[in-house]
Every structure is written in C-alpha cells, then in structure tokens.
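DM from R.C. (forwarded with permission)

"hey, sorry to bug you on a friday — could you get me a structure for this? deadline for the figure draft is monday and I only need the backbone to look sensible"
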Amino acid sequence: MRISSYRTWCFDLDGTLLDQQARYTQIYCALVTRLGGKPVSDYWSMRKAGLSELDVFLRSGLSLSNLPAYDHMREEELENVHYLKFDTPFPNTLRLLEVLSSLNMAIWVVSHRSSYERLSDQLASLKLNKLIAGCICTKQYCDSADNTTLALSAEGAKVASRAKARALQKLGDASQIVMVGDSPSDIVAAHLAGVDSIAITTGCHPREMLEKEGPDLVCSTLQDLLVMISGTSL
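My reply, with the result:
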C-alpha cells in the first residue's frame, strides 16, 4: 500500500477515532425500554459478532412496526450531548494524529453526523481539535429524497456511503487521499470517491464484513496503523 503518497488523511469518527460502545449501548437500552421492549444483555457482543442494529432490535421483543420510531429516536440521540460525553478516544488516537500532523499531513474528520457544532465541541473537549484541519458532517451531502430513508435499512447504508463519497470528492486529488473507517459504508464511500481506504476493526463491524468490501488495508487497531506509518520513509 502506498502510505507515503497520501497527503490527506480522512478519518471516520465513531468507532474509528472514538470508542462509542458506551454511547451506543446506553441509547439502545434506553430506547428499547421506552418502546416497551426488553434490551438484550449482550448488545455490544452481538454487534461485534456481526449482527446489525436491526437484528438486535428484533431480538428485543419489538416488532417491525416499532422500527420507524426507534430509527428516528436513535438518530436524534446519537448526537445528544448527554450521550456524546460517554465517548473516549481509542488508545493511540492522539498519538496517531500527532504523528500525521508532524509529517505535515492534512487530517480531516469525515463523519455521518448532522451537527457540525456538536462534533467540533466534542473534539475540543477531547483535545483533538488542534490536530485536525477540518471536519465534515456528511448528512449535509444527502439528497433531499434521502431524508425519509430509515438509517437502519439497507438503503440507509447506501445513503451514508453516497454522502461520504461526495464529501471526500471535495478534498482534492483522489490519488493523495485515504479514508480510514470502521464500517462498510466508509469503504464503499472510498470506492465511490476513487480514493484508497483503510479499514479498522475497532468499531461494531467484524473483520470479515469489512474485508468483503475490499479495502486496501485492514488493521486491527490504530496501533497497527501507527506502526506502519512510523516505519514508512516519508
């Protein structure tokens, strides 16, 4: 992989730079309870094993008729400042960004969120903001027709990929850009934008699911990526 050729490094945020396990788990439990279901006790283990949010939702005693309400509330709560406070940077997140910054790389956060203000505030509270050139909340790149699509549906993943791809295309020469993410939509977005991709298995998607999308590189942790970058002559 041509690590030395990338001048712009784009990172997904949730599951890539930040550990969102506590936030996702608490939101799942709160919403399922609110809708009259019974939260499963091993939510995160199920997600890490490859079950989708929809799969786990259906194991919570709720019917598909409850899905639109769950989907809508979940999208709102994922950016609720109360829950965002549970996020923590992964080990080596700060170190990786420091190394890339020292090498004069442009670092961008490309996240499928809607609130730029909340994203920026979160990065500032975690003391990551000074290392980042810019942030893009990719929901602004969704078509108007996409606003009615359930985020947890198969089409919802395609919507996220298209939006991320449009954002990546705004960042310059595709040959110098790499997208680092923990979800299949990050890898698909990179393909659509014509940029290379690195999959990280720290989120809620298993390695085999990420490999299926054909990333240029798969790393188990940011530490693995850091080792590769540090060992590369730039």
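R.C.: lifesaver. The first strand starts at residue 8 and ends at 11.
me: no worries. Residues 12 and 111 are 5 Å apart (CA to CA).
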